[in-house]
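Working notes for the structural subgroup meeting. M.R. asked for a predicted model of this chain before we commit to crystallization trials. I am recording the input and output together here so anyone reviewing the notebook later can reproduce the run.

Input as submitted:
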Amino acid sequence: MGHQRLGEIPKSQRWSTVVTTVASGSGDGGAFTALAEALDTIADRTLEAAEGALEQAIGDAGLRFAFYLLTQVALAAREEDWQAALRPFGIDIDNSTSLFDLTDKIQTAIETHVRRQGTPTDISEMAQQSAGQALTELAGPNAITLFGSGSAEAQEAVRKLSTKAGFARLGQRFFGCFMARFLNFYLSRITAGQVGKQAFQHSGELSRFNELLLTHCNQSARIVHTFCGEWYSKTEFQKGITLENTSGFMAVALRKLRAELRRQREGT
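Returned structure, recorded in token form:
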């Protein structure tokens, strides 16, 4: 698809440790149990092995814009005419637009922005998917009512995430989804290319492990929960949220999350 890839799997001693840990679960259907028990270690060592790629992610235009757009969609939901408030960001909706339609349009807007900036990257694609997933998971349950599932219902559901507390939840979920995709980018290449088909005896085991990894990352992203809400509220009140100040926020948030994953493994 013309993406700028994150690069080859690291050939380092740290990465070899990850491969060994994953491989230890192969055979006799024990992969899922072994991987689940070693989840903290696998997540930390995967992150450590891919540290350079995470530093690269901090400055990724797609990651920055995806989070910025989430802030703007949340703020737009406060407006009486939120259709007009969304239009400057390339999101055109009408009265029949459901939350799921809105999510598709948000992801398209992110993709359009990234392509204007240059070549899309794996990081920008992860961020695009994470933004849609976070919004759908948190706003989705409130977007379908007895009165329907159109634009008005979607706006009300998103408006609940536009407060300081609401956006803290949205930010945490976004970073949890992103980190799960980031780690899985490497882990999937291990299970497919380096450990072999015996790593998982059943496809369901891989699916269950991915669910555990997502839960682990969502819980780990609790470290940025308050930070997301406070930054969102304070920045919008004092000077307004921009792409520029979102970039600085992104660097701090990702480093907080990286430190939290390491702290969990070390038990400190």
